[in-house]
Amino acid sequence: MITAKLKSEVNREVLLVIISVFLYFAALGGMGSIISRFSRELGASTYETGLIFSIGPIIGVLSRIPSGVYADKFGSKYFMGGGGLILFLAAIYASYINSYNELFLVRGLQGLSIGLFISASIAAVSLYGYMEYLYRLLSYRAAAISLSSLIGPPIVAYFVDNYSYSTAFIVVSLFGLSATLSSLLLPKAVSRENDGVSSMMIISSVLKNKYVLALFVLPLVNGGVFISLYSLQQDHIYSVGHGAIVFGNLLFIIGVVGLFTRLYAIKVIEKLGPLITITLGLLLESIGLSLLIYWDGNPYTLYTMGMLYGGGIGFTVPSGQYILLSSVSEGMRNTASSVYASGFDIGGSVLVVLLSYIAQVYGFSTSYLYMTLALLLSMAILYISLKRLGC
Fold it and tell me: pLDDT tens digits for 13-66?
């Protein structure tokens, strides 16, 4: 019965999108899970590592909105394929470098890849799938991302600890290439709604949408905290003498718990609505991060944090995307997804630098405290603003 229900919801095109998302995020997560550690081994400080990490979101925000507008005109598949190809090239280049300064280019390519692939893949779920199943399809996409973190980061960490960074980046490149090929197998899907409509008119319509503006705080803060956690935890784990596998295990745990909560989010959204689901998710993330404030290097405390944080992300991601895509017309979903996701880039580029500086000057615990408070504040702002809109 479950299989029959899935078949009615997930057609061949949506399945290809989900496979592409899994492969892409296995590459992206695997690569991201060792960049900070690699930069420290090449001689970068905590602050310099934060600067390197910030380049990705900066390039991402510059490329997201233009790519979203053109994806609405020409089709998501080309931007998903292009994003996978650029990530493949970034990983190949990373396998040859021997200076942390060269990582700025690697992160820049990653940022361009993110700007092309992620927003297009969010919109693709709604364009290839059936609107009545949208919140379910977004949960399946989100589950694919969680599943990718069970594969990419642990495999990459294994190759770092047992072979070399170069070998690990080659493994990443194979995931990226596979994501490219699976994306290009998709048929072209473009809404005719935008025929004769200028790019500026599309962007203007999206920016006037009150739901898009209210939701922007979610990727801004939640994304910024996520990118900062990715960078700082690698650095912190390296500083206390643990191997790369500890961070790989953390991402594995976040992925396992996130996989179940992203699928369970379907039921929560049906019963309680997307607003309560987002609020519950941000609360779980905040509780999880608060455990890091007094972290003494014990991996099991870290893993407990991962369970709570991963559970929270599993609720917030599909719920936010569901509200977003439900509030805009079919011909503007790539653009709306790009505007929404640019908050992730803006928050990430600013917070990772700021929090890395705080960690270097005042300690990691202070950074974790500010990250927890930022999540709680965003939870309150989101609840109030979306409640006023009748969500």
Answer: 889 999 999 999 999 989 988 888 889 888 888 888 888 878 888 888 788 777
Whole-prediction pTM: 0.76
- Nearest-10 Cα torsion for 154, 223, 228, 166: 40
Nearest CA-CA partner of 58 in 25, 119, 105: 105
Helices (H), the chain: 2-9, 12-41, 46-74, 76-94, 103-128, 134-162, 165-184, 199-207, 210-215, 217, 224-239, 244-272, 274-290, 299-326, 333-362, 364-388
Q: How many CB atoms lie within 10 A of CB 254?
A: 29
What is the gyration radius of the CA atoms in the chain, in angstroms? 19
Closest by CA position to 25, among listed 123, 110, 148, 158: 148
3-state secondary structure of 42: coil
In contact, 49 and 235? CB cutoff 8 Å: yes
Counting Cα atoms < 13 Å in the Cβ hemisphere of 179 gives 37
* Residue range 87-138, pLDDT digits in tens: 999 999 999 988 888 999 999 999 899 889 988 887 788 777 766 667 678 7
CATH number of 12-388: 1.20.1250.20
Domain coordinates in residue numbering, the chain: 12-388
| Separation of alpha carbons 16 and 272, rounded Å | 30
